[in-house]
Give the backbone structure.
Amino acid sequence: GLVTCVKFAYIVHLDVRSIPSQHDYIFFVGHHFDGDQYQRRAISSEHATPNGWRTHEVDAATLQRDVQWIDGDFGSLHAIPKFTKGLPGHPYHPKRYIHDQIDETIRHKQRVPDQLVTIKVCVDCIDDTDFVNHLLHAAANGVWVQVQVDWRKMTLTHSDNYLRLKRSGVELLGVFCTPKHPLIEVAPDMHNKFIVFRGSDAILGSFNITFDRWGANWESGMTFSSQGMARLLDNIFQSIRGGVIQKYQVDPLSRFNLLYTFGRHALPNGKYYRPNHAILSEIHRARHSIRLCLFLLGELQGEHGDSVIDALIQARARGVDVQAILNGHLARQGDPGREYTMEEELRRPLLPAVYRLQQAGIPLLLAYGRYDQPVPYCPIHSKYCVIDERIVLEGSFNWYNTSVYSHDLYVVVNDPVIARIYLNEYEQTQRDFRIF
């Protein structure tokens, strides 16, 4: 429908707490949209209304205890890898887990009707009819559903799914992410991909909730059944709602770390430790093998301008067995939306970062789907890495600089059993795709 009014409020951060403004202020009213001229006006309290938005902070001391508990008892996470394998009906596919968790959340609310029971969705894009229908059903049964998506996906797709969520009264936020930096390759966005159910169970990974459109994609992720993990994710969720993200200390050598691009997880020396730092650190520590399966790869830089491409080349030079499966279509220069024959596609030059790896002698497996398409296509959307058959890096973080300035998260898991599962997926990917 037509816009009738646009209001805004603001939030002040003072030390470790957030303070919402007293009022919602008028920014535009409907007739202001009729003209095509720039408009300037003074913002005043005239026609202002009370601001009902309330922010929340997770307790920092509790988060620190959660980190220490998980480090001492990795099994308490109950971490289980999930892989889409291009088949929404596959038993490892996250779709079944997500819908089962929504059903269990509804049942939990029915068992304890006076308790606040929540589903917190923080996913770049959720334009999936089955998922939205199920969220609306949960909300109708008393579950408090909160949703955060990237603003572009919500406002530029003209999707009926987002409209239905908004009209239902579900808390739906379109999140802006607009930092400026010369290293940024494309526009940053709210690129997180996680859901928390009931404050106890969670899923994260490389996948958007768009399985009815991109069900054939190959994606990866993990599920967790841990209140501590749920709180660590809630710290991120509440900060995007306007709260102050809480600071806690991490050990980069622990069995598990959850890292967020705007997180305040710090090393003992006080410096923040974020996904790009972890990627470079783990590559530098690699002794035997590195296996990458990536949607995108660029000259991702660390704290001191060091490049992930240099780190991989240096790893190979010291005897580490480095190999990468890349989305072949996106590893090349030129317009990815154009039509090419496969002969033309394979003549397209590689991206400079990918070319540097090739020139250094690192085996690059450029993957494509089994069948030719008018626009050559590879369904790989994963972002995982396995190091020394025990370290797994997994999440929404793409290996280029835009991700450093986007909302993104990554987990670092030190567990040979989970690593073996990821290596099995890596080997199956080699078998099931055309590799050039």
Q: What stands out?
A: The mean pLDDT is 96. The longest strand covers residues 23-29.
